[in-house]
Amino acid sequence: MSPKPVSPQRTRRALWLRDDDRPRKPRLSRERIVAAAVDLLDAEGVDGFSMRRLAARLQAGTMSLYEYVPSREDVLDLALDAALGEIELRQPTTAPWRDVLAEQATETRRVMLRHPWVPGLVGTRPLLGPASLARSERAYAALHRAGLAGPALVAAISALYSFVHGFVATESTWRTQLPDEADEADLRRQAEVFLAERADLYPTLADHARLGDDDFDAGFALALDTVLDGIAARLPGSPPSRPGP
Amino acid sequence: MSPKPVSPQRTRRALWLRDDDRPRKPRLSRERIVAAAVDLLDAEGVDGFSMRRLAARLQAGTMSLYEYVPSREDVLDLALDAALGEIELRQPTTAPWRDVLAEQATETRRVMLRHPWVPGLVGTRPLLGPASLARSERAYAALHRAGLAGPALVAAISALYSFVHGFVATESTWRTQLPDEADEADLRRQAEVFLAERADLYPTLADHARLGDDDFDAGFALALDTVLDGIAARLPGSPPSRPGP
DNA sequence: CGGGTTTCCGTACACTGCACGGAAGCCCAT
DNA sequence: ATGGGCTTCCGTGCAGTGTACGGAAACCCG
Fold it and tell me: Which residue out of A194, A226, A242 would a mutagenesis test of the B interface target, given it has the greatest number of B Cβ atoms within 10 Å?
């Protein structure tokens, strides 16, 4: 009655949902590999990342890595969670929700900018690593204590972190597109000209969007505040803004 | 006095900032190539995308493509903008800002879900193609007419589209992680178990986040409304919520 | 000291992006 | 008509990729 009895592995199941117990004693280790992967990614970006180069950094044969890690893709999963693990949260869990969330958001951005390959990967795989989950848990808890629950809670967190990830992703592509100071002014000017030439097509844009000439820090703070305002408006005991359908 | 007289090309300059005039008459064309690229990406995802496979689809030699397109990376830029060009906007520019923005956001999401490789690419390169710019222009115009300008305007748009991109990126990874109906229930259950097992570490999460079991449509609508509320609160002539620093 | 387990890794295969240089078609001036 | 130049097209080649396979060597415990 079952036409397909066993399909051995139809999609790569997220690393976090599997488990793996390897006893014994090595020269390499998963930790060492992941740490080296983060370094390599910092230095060369995701394009310059390869298993051979990673192994070389560890002074090991390429295939030795596969004793500790199932695939290149999984190394990226692990490196991503390791990087996100650098997010440090000083605010006590009992602090006002807005402070907790603001700190998380800015810290997340700081870490993502320190590892410019992170934003690109975040949009590519589900965040189920322990570091990601720990971060989510704190955010959920803060807003739950503020009175949200169920779908409204999920939506609020979702709005916040979708925004943070999206913002830093585009910020990061802009920043790495302007790598050294010399060409930076050059490219900015070129971008200005580019928009100015098309001012008939994009008049408002040409007027207001300075295309990466902006202060990203201030922009982030402003946009973050906007999102937090939106969340605040949905908290119990705040004026109903507009009736839903 | 100038130590580095000419550096031939230090980073790949965004395609849109270059120009290229090719007269004459071909069997291939940039349009045909880009259209085929979108098809290939739809069918095989970004991992299955290669210049050889693309050429095969066009019944052409691999190297013929390079007559029309400088590099694989540029093909991806072009395909991305082509896909974003499918965003259709029915609202007249004179409609209320909230309607314009809401339509843009949901249409963007629809298109991104129709081409599941799009969200992953968006976080990877600046959006300077004509389709992206046209979309931005409309959004800027709508909010400009509502009274925003300068950094506040930029921040509002930035909040909105960062959110949309971020949301659809994670939604998309979840969806493609659950490709066929058979395993879907399976993975959902596994994810539930996964969280339940760790309920001591992530209590709030285990309670409220159903981990992809949710209705993405409703979640998006809710979160989008939250962000729009935040923007509304910043419009001129709305009650000051909290004093800034 | 023998056998089993576990780390390490050389080799090999199928695949990638793209540089190079040649062939073949077209346009136009003479 | 003929020659030259430009522009398509693309075969070949190179350096590089992820990882399957199977062997070597080190260690543990009997």
Answer: A226
- Distance from CA(B100) to C1'(D26), angstroms, rounded: 69
pLDDT digits (tens, 9 = 90+) for B186-230: 767 777 888 888 889 999 998 887 765 568 999 999 999 999 999
Q: Do A201 and B226 touch (CB under 8 A)?
A: no
Question: Which residues neighbour B132 within 8 Å (Cβ) at sequence distance 6 or greater?
Answer: B81, B84
For chain B, percent of residues with pLDDT exceeding 90: 67
The answer to whether the CB of A108 falls within 8 A of the CB of A59 is no
Segment A36-69, tens digit of pLDDT: 999 999 999 999 999 999 999 999 999 999 999 9
Residues 6+ away with beta carbon under 8 Å from B239: B233
Distance D5 C1' – B35 CA (angstroms): 32
Q: How many CA atoms lie within 13 A of A92 on its CB side?
A: 2
Q: How far apart are CA B189 and CA B155, in angstroms?
A: 40
Q: At what angle do helices A72-84 and A130-145 cross, to 10 degrees?
A: 40
Query: Touching check for B18 and chain A: CB below 8 Å?
Result: no
Residue B3 scores a pLDDT above 60: no
